[in-house]
Design goal:
CATH architecture: Beta Barrel
Distance between the termini: 34 Å
Number of helices: 0
Length: 87
């Protein structure tokens, strides 16, 4: 399975707060308008720097990678998200 970090631009459709990690840090499930679904990485510090729940409909630049035991059921981890650069 390819676990290389990829980058692209996407529009946020929905954000769901998940249960905190064992260390007490927030986790999110982020759905995009193209159907992609990604989880923030457990204990990722960058989630404190963005207000994900207020970003519905925003165009964002994302970095992500696939992780999981089966290509049929991969987990996609959202490594980073920021407002898209305007050209």
């Amino acid at each position: 399975m390819d676990t290389t970090t990829k980058k692209r631009t996407a529009t946020i459709d929905n954000v769901e707060r998940l249960q905190n990690t064992l260390n007490g840090n927030p986790q999110y499930l982020v759905q995009f308008t193209d159907g992609a679904v990604m989880h923030t990485e457990p204990d990722a510090g960058w989630v404190y720097g963005v207000s994900l729940t207020y970003m519905r409909g925003d165009v964002v630049d994302i970095e992500y990678h696939r992780q999981g035991f089966s290509p049929a059921d991969p987990v996609v981890i959202l490594d980073f998200l920021a407002p898209a650069e305007v050209e």
